[in-house]
From TrEMBL:
Gene3D superfamilies: Enolase-like C-terminal domain (3.20.20.120), Enolase-like, N-terminal domain (3.30.390.10). Pfam families: MR_MLE_C, MR_MLE_N. Residues 144-240 form the Mandelate racemase/muconate lactonizing enzyme C-terminal domain. The keyword Metal-binding applies. Its cofactor is Mg(2+). This is Mandelate racemase/muconate lactonizing enzyme family protein. InterPro entries: Enolase-like_C_sf, Enolase-like_N, Enolase_C-like, Mandel_Rmase/mucon_lact_enz_CS, Mandelate_racemase_C, Mandelate_racemase_N_dom, RHMD-like. It comes from Nocardioides humi. Keywords: Magnesium, Metal-binding.
Length: 357
C-alpha cells in the first residue's frame, strides 16, 4: 500500500514585465507543492495568485489540507480529493479549490511518474499534439504598429490564431486596433479578443456587433464572471463567448452551460481544482456542446487538452517563463507534450531561489 508521506510548499514572487497580457498585474505569486509517497517518489504541483491571496492558499495547504492528505492511499486519491473538498466546503470555492488544485496536480504528476508515462498518456491520450494560439504579444500599452508586429510574429512562427486585448482604452479605440490587426493579417487568421471583465452590458453588446463585423472568433470575458445573465444575452447575439479563468469548479461552469451563456470554457487547472476537476468540467462541457480552451500555462495544459476529446486550442501565454528551465515545444502552430514522465514541467531552480518569499 503506497501512501502520501510528505507534503512541502514554497512560495515565489515572480515580477511581470509590461508585456504580459491585459490584467494589469505586475507580479505573480507562485505556490509550489511537492508530494512524496512512501516509496520516495515525488510529484510537483502548483497554483498562483495574480492579485494577491496566494499566501492564504499556501496556509490552507500547510495547516488544513496537509492533515487530510497525509497517510492517505495514493490509489484512493479521488476519495482524498472529496475529503479535502468537504473539509473546506464552508469556506467557499475560492482559496479552497486553488489549494486542492495544487495538491491534485502534484499527485497526478507523481502517479504518472510512477508509471513512467507522460501525464497525457497516463490519463489516456486522444491525440499527440494540439493547436496553440498566440496570446502573449498583445497588451494595452502597445501601439497599433506594435500590435500588428506581434501578430505577424506569431504568424511567422506558424500560429493560425491570435488573441488581442480590449476594454482599457475606450471602445472606439479598441475597434480601431482590432481593425488594424485584421487588415494586416487577412481574413483567414482567427482573432480572439479578451476584455478582462472591463465592460458593461450595453458596451459589450455594442462592441460584440463591431467584433462580429471583423470576423472575431470569440469574445472573452467582456463582463464580470459572476454575470451569467449578461453573458447569456451576449451569447444570444451569435458571437461565441469565452469565459472561465475566473470560474472555479464544475458547478460554476455548469451554470454557464445550463443557461447557454458561453460556448468556450477556459478553466485554469491550478485554480479550478486541478486535473480531477478539470476533467469533470470537460465532461459536462460535452453535454452542452461546448469546447474547452484552458487558461494560462501551456506546459501543463497540453497534457489535459490531449487527454479529452473537446479541447481544440491551448493558449500560448508566457506568464512564468522567467522561472521555467524549458518551455512548451511548438511545431507548425501545434503544441507538443514533453516525453518526460509526469507533466514534465522543469523549473529553473536558481530563478526560484531568487524569487522565493
Amino acid at each position: 500500500m503506497t501512501t502520501i508521506e510528505r507534503i512541502t510548499t514554497t512560495m515565489h514572487a515572480v515580477p511581470l514585465g509590461a508585456g504580459r497580457g491585459g490584467s494589469g498585474a505586475t507580479q505573480v505569486d507562485l505556490v509550489l507543492v511537492t508530494v512524496e509517497d512512501s516509496d520516495g517518489a515525488r510529484g510537483l504541483g502548483f497554483t498562483f495568485g495574480l492579485t494577491g491571496g496566494a499566501g492564504a492558499v499556501r496556509h490552507l495547504i500547510d495547516h488544513d489540507l496537509r492533515s487530510v492528505a497525509l497517510a492517505s492511499e495514493l490509489d484512493h486519491w479521488p476519495q482524498t480529493w472529496e475529503r479535502m473538498s468537504a473539509r473546506t466546503h464552508r469556506l467557499g470555492r475560492g482559496h479552497a479549490l486553488a489549494a486542492i488544485g495544487a495538491l491534485d496536480i502534484a499527485v497526478h504528476d507523481l502517479q504518472a511518474r510512477r508509471q513512467g508515462l507522460p501525464l497525457y498518456r497516463f490519463l489516456g491520450a486522444y491525440a499527440d499534439a494540439v493547436e496553440i494560439y498566440g496570446s502573449g504579444r498583445a497588451t494595452h500599452q502597445m501601439s497599433d504598429a506594435e500590435l500588428v508586429e506581434g501578430a505577424q510574429a506569431y504568424l511567422a512562427d506558424g500560429f493560425g490564431a491570435i488573441k488581442l486585448r480590449a476594454g482599457a482604452l475606450g471602445l472606439d479605440r479598441d475597434v480601431e486596433r482590432v481593425t488594424a490587426v485584421r487588415e494586416a493579417v487577412g481574413d483567414s487568421v482567427r482573432i480572439m479578443v479578451d476584455c478582462n471583465e472591463r465592460l458593461t452590458l450595453p458596451e459589450a453588446l455594442w462592441f460584440a456587433a463591431r467584433m462580429a463585423d471583423l470576423g472575431v472568433f470569440w469574445l472573452e470575458e467582456p463582463l464580470r464572471s459572476e454575470d451569467v445573465a449578461g453573458h447569456r444575452q451576449l451569447a444570444a447575439t451569435g458571437l461565441p463567448i469565452a469565459v472561465g479563468e475566473h470560474l472555479q469548479g464544475r458547478f460554476e461552469f455548469g451554470e454557464y452551460l445550463g443557461r447557454q451563456a458561453a460556448s468556450i470554457l477556459q478553466p485554469d487547472p491550478p485554480l479550478c481544482g486541478g486535473v480531477t476537476e478539470w476533467r469533470r468540467i470537460s465532461a459536462i462541457a460535452e453535454t452542452g456542446s461546448a469546447v474547452l480552451s484552458p487558461h494560462f500555462l501551456p506546459e501543463l495544459n497540453v497534457h489535459l487538452a490531449l487527454a479529452v476529446p473537446n479541447c481544440p486550442l491551448v493558449e500560448h501565454f508566457p506568464l512564468i517563463d522567467d522561472v521555467l528551465a524549458d518551455t512548451i515545444a511548438i511545431r507548425e502552430g501545434r503544441a507538443l507534450p514533453p516525453d518526460r514522465p509526469g507533466h514534465g514541467i522543469l523549473f529553473d531552480d536558481e530563478a526560484l531561489r531568487r524569487f522565493r518569499i
